[in-house]
Amino acid sequence: MPLNTTSFIFNRGGEARWVKSVHGEDALREALCAYYAIISLIDQQIGEIIQALDERGLRDETLVIFCADHGDFAGEYGKMGKGWNYDAVHRVPFVWNWPGHFDAGRIHPGLVKTIDLYPTLCRLANVPAPRTAQGMDLAEILLGDSDESKDAVFYEFVGVKTVRTKLHKLSYGYDGEREMGELFDLVEDPHEYNNLFDDAAYASIRESLLRRLLNWTIETAQPPNFQPGYENLPATRWFEGS
Question: How are the residues of the chain apportioned to helix, strand and coil, as percentages rounded to the nearest 5?
Answer without folding.
Answer: 35, 15, 50
